[in-house]
Design goal:
Layout: E1 10-13, H1 24-27, H2 29-34, H3 40-56, H4 60-74, H5 79-93, H6 100-111, E2 115-123, H7 124-133, E3 138-146, E4 152-158, H8 163-176, E5 184-187, H9 193-197, E6 201-205, H10 209-218, E7 222-223, E8 240-248, E9 251-259
Length: 267
């Protein structure tokens, strides 16, 4: 008989409004416009979508429409060109959006020996570079199919939204030997209830109204992330530790977040 490998725990983080303060897909709208992939009308709709998303979140029907619109829009784009634009503009559009509180929790889970995953409905072309930026190697994201010339076609190999997130997490848990009952999940959206229910330690972050009500009903912890922080190379002097209050349920705790000092700009 083969000896069974011991199972490990994991932490699964949603991306938008959980690790970053906004939508990863919408954040790249301006660079794509500058590169000629989007027209002014597309850019305007993306801006309105970003504003609505930040204020009200997104229900399942909205996300379905976004999915279909995204597939129609990207059909014919060359994957390699999109990868290049994302790589060139990542620091510009994403770095100012990363939550310090999320970085702290990611680091704490890693220090505790848990595997950390980003789980997002956004295309993997956007999600994977952002995950790498915050130090996460494991990504579960939407995969758009490409043709033999490397161009996107309006079909999906994997759609990681709603129940699809939980299904993908279970597949990864089976593959990687993850104990879901001992694992954690973090998200802001009510459409991610299946993701939260798939683990033994669900945590809601910056929740929309429906998710806050569900969290209070289930007595799940509620975190409020409010402090985007600049990501800089951690070299030379040790980072300064700043204590940030985080609301958990009806109480408040303080978490220490390592922040690198900015170097003064020479004139």
């Amino acid at each position: 008989f083969r000896s069974r490998m011991p199972m490990t725990e994991a932490a699964f983080f949603d991306l938008d409004k959980t690790i970053i303060a906004g939508s990863s897909s919408l954040a790249f709208g301006k660079p794509l416009y500058r590169a000629g992939f989007l027209g002014k009308g597309h850019l305007l709709r993306l801006g309105i979508g970003q504003f609505t998303y930040m204020l009200f979140g997104a229900d399942e029907d909205t996300l379905e429409r976004v999915r279909d619109g995204m597939l129609d829009l990207v059909s014919g784009w060359h994957k390699a060109e999109i990868d290049a634009i994302v790589a060139q503009t990542l620091d510009e559009v994403i770095e100012p959006l990363v939550f310090a509180e999320a970085l702290f929790l990611i680091d704490e889970h890693m220090r505790s020996g848990r595997k950390v995953y980003v789980v997002s409905a956004s295309p993997e072309e956007f999600v994977t570079p952002i995950a790498r930026m915050v130090g996460i190697d494991n990504v579960i994201a939407t995969k758009i199919r490409t043709d033999g010339l490397g161009r996107f076609v309006p079909e999906l190999d994997q759609y990681v939204m709603g129940p699809g997130k939980a299904d993908a997490m279970r597949e990864v848990a089976e593959r990687d030997g993850i104990d879901l009952e001992g694992s954690y999940a973090y998200t802001d959206s009510f459409t991610d209830m299946p993701m939260l229910e798939a683990v033994g330690n669900p945590v809601v972050v910056n929740p929309e109204k429906e998710l806050r009500e569900a969290a209070e009903e289930n007595e799940w912890p509620i975190l409020e992330f409010q402090r985007p922080v600049s990501l800089e190379p951690r070299v030379q002097a040790p980072p300064k530790r700043v204590w940030i209050p985080v609301v958990v349920g009806v109480g408040t705790i303080a978490i220490a977040v390592a922040l690198s000092k900015r170097r003064p700009v020479s004139s």
